[in-house]
Design brief:
The chain is an alpha+beta fold. The chain folds into 3 domains: 11-272, Beta-galactosidase, Chain A, domain 5; 293-468, Glycosidases (TIM Barrel, Alpha-Beta Barrel); 595-676, Golgi alpha-mannosidase II (Immunoglobulin-like). It is built from 12 helices and 43 strands. The strands form 8 sheets. A 9-stranded antiparallel sheet has the order 8-9-10-11-22-19-18-13-16, covered by helices on one side. Strands 7-6-12-21-20-17-14-15 form an 8-stranded antiparallel sheet, with no helix packed on it. Helix 7 packs parallel to helix 8. The model has no long low-confidence stretch (mean pLDDT 97).
């Protein structure tokens, strides 16, 4: 495996029983016990104290032997190379042992395997000549606690399906909505059921915990698998691995060392941002054909008609993204004669005009593909009742079902896509859904498993998704391309290192598109969409439902957070964005400081009006600003007056080209893009 840019080889050093591991932008330090004692991201410490095991045994708090200088059990480096390092460690109490294996990957993701077991007997105990009273190997609970500094925990994000409720310690419940899985961290303690992805952080950085399943977990209350507890100077993420004595450790408790087999748990942790955020996060001027705004007929004819190729060039498009209908067979990488000829025509025409091309690939296997009969039963995600998951319908008439990335289909898919990139000189790929960790109950490829109650449980194939994206990213970056990804309502931070750009927005806009009047949910936007805290730029999905929700409204709330919407209509939205792209291109963004509304001191005199801006200092030491003034409400805001801490006295409305001054009205969800100096 080759290490792609911007990543660097893993570097590990040891000093006084501590192992420090450096990856791009982050440093992890493992203590003598093999647990993580320090996590630094962008030079800032995330942990308030070391990660720890909290355990009670036979009614008492466990006391661990931490004298690693003399107990001959200090952590050690099992292996190291440029791609990863493995650090092992252990802890021992009076009755039990916990072993750790930490695999640190070059993108900063750490896979942690925990093995929990009874302590062995001494020779005297084995021979029956010990004076010690036999111990009862009784476990009361086993928890993992991650104490994070309070100042880095203002936002949260977790994966949800149809169970997005948050249960507070006072008995109240935050009901599930389309936006309940992200936002401002509640001030009250709370708990949730098992979540395969859970992130705490702020607008700049954060900490992500993940697990593919809850195999071997034993919680007293399934709604209290992961707990968030506020301390004086910290926020504790508490993982309830075992809330009681393991159900499969039955029999005489004094015979535990002979009869109780070790119990294993696996999870991962990751500090964000996963890689340096680009100085200019606007990676391209993309037009997305046939997404949301559907077209009739094939793409080649549409683009040839009415000089649409020429219009793309005229509007400043630098990347054409082809939606799913470019391919006769959904997501299949062996192209029909027609599809191959059309794709070659579009690529050659666009390249002759300096426009890049990225086609769509999704997350399903189609009934139209030649391998359906052979592979479908083995590779499709299964629901708990054994039925196939998915079933997307499209033309040509076909159905497409969700392919699990933990199946053999994943490598077939990756190899096929890479081959197409080479054969057709593609400039990258747009991936719709493969980063989403679909829960899979399939026993055929090993995702499904049975808990102690005999219930069939799912796996969320995060590791297989990481492997897929890593393979694609290495190949695409070697060829100078990019990977743009859509995952609805989830930020899969475990795969983010191998993604160039996310495309989000459906969840936030759903209510607006229905005509529901409310303010833009700023906390949700900052947690899930801004990109900087994760290290990967975002583009905004913008689906119109005029007149209640327009592309201009989507532009308004996105520019406030430093991102742009992607146009999907060759007429108005593209024409609107053409002007916006020119404005952004005219300002030296890559040399500017980003000053968002939550970090600047702009005064608006109106809580419904927020201002973010780029600040550039000229060679003559003059401040120039590209400012975005936004009305986050559905109501007209009159007589808005803005003032900046910088010494500025001229304001120009960049969309009209007219001097605007610093006082004006703002339409519902309205905006102004202003040049100020």
């Amino acid at each position: 495996m080759r290490i792609p840019k911007p990543f660097l080889p893993v570097k590990i050093t040891t000093e006084d029983l501590y192992h420090k591991v450096d990856v791009v932008g982050r440093t992890y330090t493992f203590g003598p016990d093999g647990m993580i004692h320090s996590i630094k991201s962008l030079g800032c410490e995330l942990l308030a104290s070391p990660m720890r095991i909290v355990m009670k045994e036979d009614g008492k708090d466990a006391v661990f032997n931490d004298d690693y200088k003399s107990n001959e059990s200090e952590s050690f480096i099992q292996s190291r190379n440029e791609e990863n390092a493995v650090v092992c460690g252990c802890k021992q109490s009076e009755r039990f042992i916990v072993d750790f294996t930490n695999t640190i990957n070059y993108d900063g993701n750490i896979d942690i395997d925990v093995k929990f077991m009874t302590k062995g007997l001494t020779v005297a105990q084995v021979l029956g000549v010990s004076d010690m009273e036999p111990l009862k190997y009784k476990l009361d609970n086993l928890w993992l606690e991650i104490p994070l500094k309070k100042e880095v925990c203002s936002l949260y994000h977790f994966f949800r399906r149809n169970d997005g409720e948050i249960y507070f310690s006072d008995g109240t419940v935050k009901e599930q909505t389309l936006t309940s899985a992200s936002g401002a961290l509640p001030e009250k303690d709370f708990h949730v059921p098992f979540r395969p992805l859970f992130w705490l952080g702020n607008e700049d950085m954060g900490f992500g915990w993940s697990a593919e399943n809850c195999r071997n977990w034993q919680t007293d209350d399934e709604k209290n698998a992961i707990e968030i507890v506020h301390g004086d100077d910290c926020v504790i993420m508490r993982i309830h691995l075992l809330d009681s004595h393991p159900v499969n450790w039955q029999g005489d408790l004094t015979k535990g060392p002979h009869e109780f087999y070790p119990i294993s748990f696996s999870f991962s942790v990751l500090a964000t941002p996963v890689k340096p955020f680009p100085e200019n996060p606007y990676l391209h001027n993309a037009f997305h054909l046939d997404c949301g705004k559907k077209i009739k007929g094939n793409y080649g004819e549409f683009l040839s008609d009415n000089n649409h190729f020429e219009k793309l060039k005229e509007m400043g498009v630098t990347t054409l993204i082809l939606h799913e209908k470019w391919n006769k067979s959904q997501n299949w990488f062996e192209l029909s004669e027609f599809t191959a000829n059309q794709l070659r025509f579009i690529v050659e025409k666009c390249h002759s005009m300096g426009i890049k091309v990225m086609p769509y690939f999704g997350y399903e296997i189609s009934t139209m593909s030649r391998v359906w009969n052979e592979l479908s039963d083995k590779v499709i995600c299964k629901k708990q009742d054994g039925k196939n998951d998915g079933g997307w319908w499209r033309v040509p008439f076909q159905r497409a079902y969700i392919a699990c990335q933990a199946s053999e289909y994943s490598d077939l898919y990756a190899d096929g896509v890479i081959k197409l990139i080479d054969e057709f000189n593609l400039d990258g790929i747009y991936l719709d859904g493969p980063a989403y960790p679909w829960p899979c109950f399939s026993l055929d490829h090993g995702c499904g498993w049975y808990n102690e109650k005999g219930e069939l449980c799912p796996t969320y194939p995060l590791k297989s998704i990481r492997k897929l994206f890593q393979k694609l990213y290495v190949a695409v970056k070697e060829r100078g391309g990019m990977i743009s990804v859509h995952s609805s309502g989830v930020v899969n931070f475990t795969a983010l290192g191998f993604i160039d750009q996310n495309w989000f927005g459906e969840n936030l806009q759903s209510d607006f598109m229905k005509g529901i009047r409310k303010d833009v949910e700023l906390d949700y936007f900052r947690a899930e969409y801004s990109g900087r805290n994760m290290g990967v730029p975002t583009e905004f999905i913008a689906y119109e439902n005029r007149p209640v929700w327009t592309f201009e409204n989507a532009l308004s709330c996105s520019i406030l957070h430093g991102i742009l919407p992607r146009p999907n209509d060759i007429d108005h939205p593209l024409e609107l964005m053409s002007g916006v792209w020119k404005i952004f291109d005219s300002f030296p963004i890559e040399k500017s400081e980003w000053k968002p509304y939550w970090k600047n001191s702009v005064q608006t005199g109106n809580e419904k009006v927020k201002v973010s801006y780029y600040k550039y200092k000229t060679l003559s030491d003059e401040d120039t600003l590209l400012a975005f003034v936004v009305n986050i409400s559905p109501d007209l805001q009159k007589d808005v007056h803005i003032s900046f801490e910088e010494n500025v006295n001229m304001a120009k409305d960049m969309t009209t080209g007219q001097d605007s001054g610093f006082s004006f009205d703002l339409e519902p969800y309205g905006y102004k893009i202003m040049y100020i100096r």
